[in-house]
Design brief:
Number of strands: 6
Oligomer: single chain
Radius of gyration: 27 Å
Structural class: mainly alpha
Number of helices: 27
Amino acid sequence: MNAPTTASRTPFIIILILLLAITGVQYFFNFNGLTSSAAMDQAQIARNVARGQGMSTNWMRPIQMVSGSTRSGLNPFLSDAQINEQAAILAGQGESLINTEKFNPYALRDTRSAPLNILVEAAVFKVAGVHKFDLWKMTGSSMIYLPDRIVAGISCMFFILSVLSCYFILHKMFDVTIASFTCLTMILSNLFLQYATSGLPQMMMLFFFSWGVYFLYCALQNQEENRKFLLPVIYSSICFACVCLAGWIGLWPMAGFLIFVGIRFRPHGLYCIPGFVILFLLLAYPLYINRSLSGSLFGTAYYTIFTGLTGNEEIAMNSLLSGDIPVAAQKAVTAIINNIMQQGDLLYENLGNLPLAMVFLLALLHKFRRPEVNQAKWAVFALWVPSIIGMALYTTSKSGLSLGQIQILFAPFFTAYGTAFVLNLIARHSNKEAAPVIRGCVLLVALLLTSLPLLLSLPQIVRLGILTSSRGIPAWPPYYPPGLNVDLRAQTSEKEFILTDQPAAVGWYADRKAIGFPKMVDQFMVLERILKFHGSKVGSILVTPASTLDKDIRTVASTYGEFTPLVLEGTTLVQTKDRNPVYLFDHSRALSPLAKRFGTPDSRQFLQGADMILYKDLQEEDPTPQQ
């Protein structure tokens, strides 16, 4: 390759300046705090890691609580009398009913999230002092939680690294035109920028994914040139294994990588062995911990498979047993097929609205001049096909920001191949004088289609960002950081647990232990029985717009079951406050046992009007641990 000249460096400098400028605008002027419960969940775990508490979590998922309690010796489905009888028998033998080493709600280890993004955040938190809650407590008029900006800053850093990496990689695979155009579309795509400040691990995954594709391309190039290619295959395996460690959804493109390597390189099946070995070595410890704590290699992450089947991950997580998850076999197959079809329908949107990325499937039919480039397109396709199945199973929302949505990882390579295909067609079917003009027009139109939504809103974003720079605009509804970080924390005890519809936000902003709503009051009693035998209880119930936002009444009822009157009470109060307020909590027969504790007039604390209500248990007696 020729030595870089000033002319060849110019596109890179332009890309770099534009990248830093647009990312800065998104970060400083268009950031409203974290909006993803998954990002908040990983952030609160990272803070506990920074404190030296390991991968412990503040989000108590009911299905994990029941499983952990049962494995520790306490069967919460038994009555108090039966449990006390078992405890008395064991006490006579000098043994304890509960093995706190296997389950402790105050130090419950997370088995849901992949560890890499959490560990990176924890390292930054340790340096910045985020693990000291009072040091970063919200004061003054600011509506944005400063550690949110730190989390978003980590994502932005990986976004910048990913774009620069893609420029280098695509420059190697194609040329400076395709590399520059692809990076420009990434920078000017609203979806990429949203992920860049989301706190989700997608930008970290994109960084490792890009280098995984590059090393696989190098292996194909070495094979064509009759050189050794084992080392690039190993490097590629490490990168794709890191994608898995950043998000478990990465196991699906990893499966495609192993299949491709096993088939493409001879002897068949031999060169996928390094990938299996590396994947096993990197995942061995997390899987061992999951197995020891939950009895399953994948821990509670296994239940995310029900996300695509039920439409909501929390329906599965808030069940007490896997048999309680409302999924029928026939409906499951139909749901998977429908989800795969919807992935196709929303492909353009989930690829970041990049027009030439959609041409990738046509580019598969085109034979590129360089054999390694031609083979690499099939490698990308092999990674993509299993990922479609994975996203159909694990994606919470079919479009927009989601922990299980990874179409964005393929967008740069889809765009590069689609652009190369279109430019080749123009070169073949246009005369020499018209070809440059047509090329320029096609690239300009494609770039405008991607960037117009951002460019049209950019002046308003900057203006609003300047006007609200001292306070910020929170992502309300449903998240109101000051209400959680200041008011909720002040009114709750560290030893008590909070039942809420946004446990991730409570765990992150208030640094309190939170439990998601089960569907039935009897299930709540089971959960509180677990807490009682560990010396605690549910001390408060927090209801926010998270339970009703963008949902019709049927969806709310199917999600919250017997707790529906409670989560709808705030909405009803907003409509009836001017005359006779209607307190649905007090009129529900199913909730009557809880209304006696949490439904008294003094129990209701309005943190943000009737939209955010804290129901406190004002009973004086505290539970004592029973062994």
